[in-house]
Give the backbone structure.
Amino acid sequence: MTTEPLGRANAWAWRAAFPSWFAISSARRSAYLGSMKQDASPPNLDTLLAEIRACRLCLEAPLTRPLPHEPRPVVQAAGSARLCICGQAPGTRVHATGLPFNDPSGDRLRDWLELDRETFYDESRVAIIPMGFCFPGHDAKGGDLPPRRECAATWHDRLFQALPGIELVLAIGQYAQAYHLGAARRRTLTETVADWRTIMSADRHPRVLPLPHPSWRNNTWLRRNAWFEAELLPVLREEVALLVE
């Protein structure tokens, strides 16, 4: 079974899936990170989390337009966590509170997982690592913009290296699925989630289970794909119960 960090192992497929989204130069990262220690040894999780929570890369050295507001990176992790939830990026309510999935989407996700808020927010049992740590802002139609490119390229490989105890990643949405599945991601999100049995049983560590986003915007998708609640959710709940016990 491979123990290669997922992002590093699938970097070629990840870049191929979202070439413009992922692209970031080493020179730009190095210039921003400056005095932060970069070496070949496994990263210290506490140090890395402190650096992420203090990150201002998308405001002070952005790839495109600067973040339109003050950064507020949102991440939850501890070395003892065996379950990792990897979504897209915080929304406005999460940005305001600093608490991941502290919104109606989070309520639905906790229902899917059959977890109460106390367990869900227990970092010793559940890691929450979005593809973008900060709220990216709104597009012209009022929807959330995609996760900022800077986050995954700068932080994610090292963060998952520092979390070897993670046994299952819940990859929510296309960006998380592209990063954690690489070439194993199917043509569409629906095809990827529909093939969840094959994906979850693949020879990789940690295992990955693809999910749709729990947003109300996906109500139609959920109605059209009744197999999700009938077949996938019971397995998801069983896996989660074992990992957080």
